[in-house]
Write a structure and sequence with these properties.
Layout: H1 11-29, H2 34-70, H3 82-103, H4 107-132, H5 137-142, H6 145-169
Helix pairs in contact: 1-2, 2-3, 2-6, 3-4, 4-6
């Protein structure tokens, strides 16, 4: 086992995961437009992948749309999309983390993981509104190209924030 890797379900991992979930939910609750909230949430999902690993980040990615809906943050017309948002979030995180594990935490590994993950998330959400779920036209539109933009923008923010955090505290992320 790597020295700096958090063991899933350890007290430190649970605490860190809970804090990252709380920060992600706080961004959702601020009530900003999709083009602000989306990148913030996606950035938090990818930062979570960096600091608590795939499992913790996927848990956050699954809980955030559900909690947002239960708290009234996610509009009722989006309810049929919740399972697809969960899957899209999970695939974004998994693509990002695996790419960084295989190619390194530098800009190449992070960038390729981000682009692949963003495209996969976009394809899941876009395919859902085109082929599977019947939602109003504005909802369908919001689940297509804007999702690609918010995932990529959020990923760029995550990469920059992680570099700043690691430099400031002299600590490596989960995947040291």
């Amino acid at each position: 086992m790597k020295k700096n890797v958090l063991a899933p379900f350890s007290i430190r991992w649970i605490t860190r995961t809970a804090i990252l979930l709380a920060i992600t939910l706080a961004f959702q609750m601020l009530g900003f437009p999709q083009m602000v909230t989306g990148p913030a949430v996606n950035a938090m999902l990818l930062l979570s992948g960096s600091y608590v690993g795939v499992l913790g980040a996927v848990i956050i990615g699954i809980l955030t749309p559900l909690i947002a809906f239960l708290r009234g943050i996610l509009a009722p017309p989006l309810a049929p999309m919740i399972p697809f948002i969960m899957v899209g979030n999970a695939l974004l995180i998994i693509s990002y983390v695996i790419s960084r594990e295989k190619m390194g935490k530098g800009y190449a590994g992070s960038g390729i993981g981000l682009v692949v993950g963003a495209i996969v998330k976009f394809l899941v959400l876009s395919s859902a509104v085109i082929f599977i779920v019947s939602v109003p036209a504005p909802v369908a539109k919001a689940m297509q190209i804007p999702q690609l933009y918010t995932a990529i923008l959020g990923g760029v923010v995550a990469i920059v924030v992680e570099k700043v955090i690691n430099a400031a505290i002299g600590q490596n992320s989960y995947m040291s």
